[in-house]
Design goal:
Layout: E1 17-20, E2 23-28, E3 33-38, H1 43-53, E4 70-75, E5 78-82, H2 86-93, E6 97-101, E7 106-113, H3 116-121, E8 136-141, E9 144-152, E10 156-162, H4 166-178
Antiparallel strand pairs: 1-2, 2-7, 3-5, 3-6, 4-5, 7-10, 8-9, 9-10
Length: 180
């Protein structure tokens, strides 16, 4: 039988974690994510299930760290849920939602530090300087579709990008941090 070793999105056996200048870039390899989309005509059941499992759903441009899960608005009646697996969400939402596991579809980097705004301004047109804790935005970073979630204003952000482009996104983050 083959001996399988799990790897991170960057191909390592342990997640990347480095401080460059005043900014820390940390790969988060154990994030559990699922997409959640309300099905047509199922609004009442969807909202009831959401209230019981997720609390208040975020408005457009919002997301954040509500316990037990972080829920990010991704589009009309569409959310990315981090911290609750797809099977649990499917059981809770039943026939009111389409749920798809996204754990291996995204790479997550947490970037923190006193110069993180300057770093992110080199990467994206998103106005991260004005983002408040709990806000989220979809943006392009080096031609990759990404999501930026503000965890703490001006100092703590999560960058979600396509796992298939993890090395490219990582390179962009490291280069921007090193340029400061």
């Amino acid at each position: 039988m083959a001996s399988l070793t799990p790897t991170t999105a960057l191909g390592g056996t342990i997640p990347f974690d480095e401080t460059i200048g005043g900014n820390r870039i940390r790969e988060v390899s154990d994030a559990v994510m699922a997409s959640l989309a309300m099905l047509k005509g199922k609004g009442a059941a969807f909202k009831k299930a959401a209230a019981s499992q997720l609390g208040t759903l975020p408005a457009p441009g919002n997301g954040g760290s509500d316990k037990p899960a972080s829920t990010v608005w991704m589009g009309s009646d569409q959310y990315l849920v981090e911290g609750i697996d797809a099977a649990t969400l499917s059981a809770t939402f039943g026939a009111s939602a389409a749920v798809t596991d996204q754990s291996d579809a995204w790479v997550r980097f947490d970037v923190t530090g006193d110069d993180v705004i300057a770093m992110l301004e080199r990467l994206s047109g998103a106005n991260t300087r004005k983002m408040k804790a709990g806000s989220a935005t979809r943006t392009a970073i080096h031609h990759m579709h990404c999501v930026i979630v503000c965890r703490a204003a001006k100092t703590d952000f999560t960058i979600l990008g396509p796992r298939s482009s993890a090395a490219s996104l990582h390179h962009a983050l490291v280069a921007a941090a090193a340029s400061l």
